[in-house]
Design a protein that fits this description.
The structure holds 2 protein chains of 2 kinds. Chain A is an all-alpha fold. Helices cover 68% and strands 2% of the residues of chain A. Chain A has a domain at 145-295. Chain B is rod-shaped, with a radius of gyration of 29 Å. The termini of chain B are far apart. The chains are: A mainly alpha, B alpha+beta.
């Protein structure tokens, strides 16, 4: 307790940079709100000869967004208490991304084909709850050792979570986009366990690889210039990877399968420093992708859509979403239509799968570039924390979390831009969705803890 | 719309403001990150061994060392022909474990490890451990080195 008070009193150690950096996200929220309010007031009344098609939020649904500023400041104060030495750029970066996410959800909600006035407020609630989870994570990992001690428990917990979804999913329609959610209670609060699986897996990989790093970097039996990977030591890793891949492909969650696989490859490379593992993994990926392509019709569909989206038969049917997304991006141009002035809701599922298209249409290429720059800064900080941490486990954990953010952003953005087959994984922090936001903030909490040089072991 | 600013103009300003805020924010983060980088560059790396001076290669003989290059002087290091040494001198005149250099009692010492051809400090063959002064010349086999002291003293453990 005394230590906590000392941290408060000691102004030199106060997180001034963080406070200073939080000004801009707050301004962004206020300007965005002002713009939406003005446009909706303008649309609803005054000018008669202007045809408007957007349904924009009214002031009473915008007001709560100010709570996000309060929540970010509260988190800032909590962090000054708990870990004054932690990285000071993380919270502002994810705060800015969340501000954009909440504003987008507020703006899109009333304009959706099935209008949902409370979409923004729900997203706001999730973000505030997630900030609580973030502080909770920082508090719970005062000693980070237990994360690593219970590594097999984490792996089992992750697998069980997804297995429950898998059993549950047998009874639902696979064509519904939310088939991988667990409905908890009658209130319709959906929960996506696969988001938590990411965290479980990255902790397990980090702990396991930290223990077996030597084995991996030495390699196993040699055949001429090639060395076989030490299979005995890699079994738990590969078994878990295959198990989760099979489950995700079974769940039709190709994006998550790709994410889990990408994190596996990144972490094994971070741990061993040997490119040979990357080549083995890519070979395995090619074989797996080919098998999936032959076995599952929905995989073939996705590939077909990407390769030939504008063919009339596809563009009006299976490729409708991707074509509308591209049109939205093109409509945005370089400077964008202006927040609240575009028509991003022509894209199906714009609030989840295609939020990048909404950003691109309304804030333009410059806005999308800014968002990508924010993700790059976030990933840069994660890898920097990895470089500076003292032991292998912490290094791998921070590097793994950075890889998750990087791969997730790449996969969904490339999917939106029709570079790779579209897979429905969320754009971190911006996409509407509770489980994703909470999982991302838990990872931010872990990064904050790992960045603090004072964390006791 | 009355007033000098029309609705559309005001909206345009707001639209530009949103983008400008995003980029200003990125600039701020980059500046904070850069300041961070400077601070951590000034601090010594966590795992680095303390360097207390340098050995400057004067004459490398048949070995792969480059004359004029500076080798870091650590608080404990060995010189010899076998590859386990800190400084490896691949020459027939150098013994497997030829000499060692270590730091003790605020001074640097050179000790001959029982080499066949001897270790010479300022052209005198040394017996046992001998304290080294800056600019002393160390000769092992055909290779010659000069000791260069760094201005700051090594951190005491």
């Amino acid at each position: 307790m005394r230590e906590v008070l000392d941290n408060m009193v000691n102004l030199r150690r106060y997180r001034w940079s963080e406070l200073f950096l939080l000004i801009m996200p707050a301004l962004f929220i206020i300007v965005g709100m002002l713009q939406l309010t003005l446009i909706s007031a303008h649309n609803s009344g005054a000018s008669v000869n202007q045809i408007t098609t957007q349904n924009l939020p009214t002031l009473d649904t915008l007001g709560p967004n100010l709570l996000l500023i309060v929540a970010l400041l509260a988190t800032h104060i909590a962090l000054s208490w708990l870990i004054p030495d932690a990285d000071q750029t993380l919270l502002p970066i994810v705060g800015m991304l969340s501000a954009l996410g909440v504003l987008m959800a507020t703006r899109l909600g009333p304009d959706l084909p099935t209008p949902d006035k409370n979409l923004g407020f729900r997203q706001l609630t999730w973000v505030i709850l997630a900030l609580g989870f973030c502080i909770g994570t920082v508090w719970a990992t005062r000693s980070i050792r237990w994360l690593r001690l219970y590594k097999y428990s984490w792996a089992v917990a992750g697998i069980v979570l997804v297995a429950i979804t898998l059993i549950h999913a047998r009874s639902v329609n696979f064509d519904s986009p939310t088939h991988d959610q667990l409905n908890l209670g009658p209130s319709g609060i959906a929960f996506q366990p696969s988001e938590l699986l990411k965290i479980c897996l990255v902790i397990f990989y980090a702990a396991y690889l930290a223990e077996n790093r030597e084995m991996l970097s030495q390699g196993g039996k040699r055949f001429g210039p090639f060395s076989m990977p030490p299979l005995k030591h890699m079994m738990p890793l590969v078994a878990l990877l295959l198990l989760s891949l099979v489950m995700f492909v079974g769940l039709r969650e190709l994006g998550l399968a790709l994410l889990i696989f990408g994190v596996f490859v990144s972490m094994i490379y971070l741990a061993s420093g040997k490119l040979i593992y990357v080549f083995y993994s890519l070979g395995g990926f090619a074989v797996g992708a080919l098998i999936a392509y032959k076995l599952f019709s929905y995989v073939r569909d996705r590939v077909l859509i990407v390769s030939d989206a504008f063919a009339p038969a596809i563009a009006s049917n299976k490729g409708f979403q991707i074509v509308q997304g591209l049109i939205a991006l093109g409509n945005g141009g370089i400077l964008g239509q202006g927040f609240g002035l575009g028509h991003p809701t022509f894209v199906p599922a714009v609030q989840t799968d295609y939020v990048a298209a909404a950003v691109g249409e309304e804030l333009g290429l410059v806005g999308l570039f800014a968002v990508i720059a924010l993700f790059m800064l976030l990933i840069y900080r994660a890898f920097r924390i990895a470089i500076r941490s003292r032991d292998t486990f912490e290094q791998l954990l921070a590097g793994g979390i950075g890889s998750i953010f990087a791969i997730q952003t790449l996969v969904i953005l490339a999917g939106n831009l029709k570079i790779i087959p579209l897979t429905g994984i969320p754009l971190p922090f911006i996409t509407y969705g509770g489980s994703s936001v909470i999982a991302n903030y838990i990872m931010v909490g872990l990064l904050l803890r790992l960045s603090s040089p004072e964390s006791v072991d | 719309m009355s007033g000098s600013l029309s609705f559309d103009e005001f909206l345009l300003i707001l639209r530009i403001a949103m983008i400008v805020i995003l980029y200003l924010f990125i600039l701020q983060v980059v500046l904070v990150a850069r300041r961070d980088l400077r601070v951590s560059a000034a601090l010594p790396a966590v795992n680095a061994k303390p360097v207390i001076g340098h050995l400057i290669v004067i004459d490398s003989g048949p070995t792969a060392l480059i004359p004029g290059s500076r080798l870091d002087l650590l608080t404990s290091m060995t010189i010899g022909r076998s590859p386990t040494n800190t400084i490896v001198l691949d020459s027939t005149y150098v013994s497997g474990e030829h000499a060692r250099i270590f730091f003790r009692d605020r001074s640097l010492w050179v000790e001959d490890m029982g080499s066949r051809n001897g270790t010479f400090l300022n052209d005198q063959r040394i017996q046992g451990a001998v304290a080294v002064k800056p600019n002393d010349i160390l000769r092992i086999g055909e290779a010659r080195f000069r000791f260069a002291a760094d201005s700051r003293e090594p951190a005491r453990a």
